[in-house]
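User: Sequence in, structure out. Go.
Assistant: Echoing your sequence, followed by the structure tokens.
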Amino acid sequence: MQQTISDLGLLLSLDRFAGQADIIDADARQQRDGSWRFDVTIYTNKPTAQHYADRWEVLTEEGEVLAITYMSLNDQTEQPCNQTMTGVMIPDNVTLVYLRAHDSHLGYAGNTITLPLQRLN
């Protein structure tokens, strides 16, 4: 009986994070015009109308938001989903960025990826 209650508690705890949006893979490439292209893979556990990744962001180490892409539930018919952001201007003194996804219900509860930037010569 005690094991069953413990298992139920674990399941309820895990269910609390249903819909959490995680960036699970990312790539950044500087374009010839100096802007950046970001390709990310976002996984949302059990996306529903209440829990889905509604946006993802590129941030500096200091937390300054450099770019945001908004998403809808329709963007996530397949899991994981792939997203691309282009034309992002990043100051020359920024050497790495953070990428994070936002869940429509849980906020910033998922994985954040740190991405070093390799600039064109």
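User: And one key feature?
Assistant: The radius of gyration is 17 Å.
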